[in-house]
């Protein structure tokens, strides 16, 4: 569903390649998005795979970058630029050589506002993707919380 919506936008005569979107390639292990950046691009994976990673400091000498999720052909990432102007909340790295479509978030928002039928369908498909990701994130948080309680023997004191 999301692919049909994106394809309709990319093929639209008012959403021009070179002005609103472009093809980009990344080699395996190359960083696409760095957590904390203030960029306005979102990406559609045409070929390859990427890993979304958090940057966590266990202590001052021990930073880690756990993988949050892997994304594959047809999936979108960096879409939060459509909803706020905050710095990137995660890093994204190519785990295979990738062919991506980079879409200017500001241009996309303008297009969606000017083309409400296309915009509504796109945002509904995007919301479906976001809900699925939120559900998976909630499951991971609950699992990690339960693990932490057990690891610190706190679960013995809970009802």
How would you portray this structure in words?
The chain is of the alpha+beta class and 159 residues long. 35% of the residues lie in helices and 28% in strands. It has helices spanning 2-10, 105-114, 116-151; strands at 21-26, 31-33, 41-47, 49-53, 56-57, 63-64, 67-72, 76-77, 91-94, 98-104. It is globular, with a radius of gyration of 18 Å.
Features:
10 strands; alpha+beta; 4-stranded antiparallel beta sheet; globular; 159 residues
What is the compact description of this entry?
The protein has 159 residues and is α+β, with helices and mostly antiparallel strands. The protein has three helices and ten strands, in the order αββββββββββαα.
**Overall outline:** globular
Assembly type of the chains comes to: single chain
Q: Number of DSSP helices?
A: 3
Q: What share of residues is helical? A: 25-40%
- Per DSSP E runs of 2 or more residues, the count of β-strands stands at 10
User: Mean pLDDT score, rounded?
Assistant: 87
């Amino acid at each position: 569903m999301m692919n049909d919506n994106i394809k309709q936008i990319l093929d639209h005569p008012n959403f021009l390649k070179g002005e609103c979107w472009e093809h980009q390639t990344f080699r395996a292990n190359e960083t696409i998005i760095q957590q904390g950046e203030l960029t306005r691009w979102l990406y559609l994976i045409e070929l390859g795979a990427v890993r979304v990673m958090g940057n966590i400091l266990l202590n001052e000498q021990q930073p880690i970058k756990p993988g949050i999720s892997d994304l594959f052909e047809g999936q979108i990432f960096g879409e939060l630029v459509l909803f706020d102007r905050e710095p990137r909340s995660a890093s994204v790295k190519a785990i295979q050589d990738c062919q991506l479509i980079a879409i200017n978030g500001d241009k996309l928002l303008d297009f969606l506002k000017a083309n409400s039928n296309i915009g509504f369908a796109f945002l509904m498909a995007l919301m479906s993707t976001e809900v699925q990701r939120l559900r998976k994130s909630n499951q991971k948080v609950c699992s990690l919380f339960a693990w932490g309680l057990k690891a610190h023997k706190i679960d013995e004191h809970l009802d």
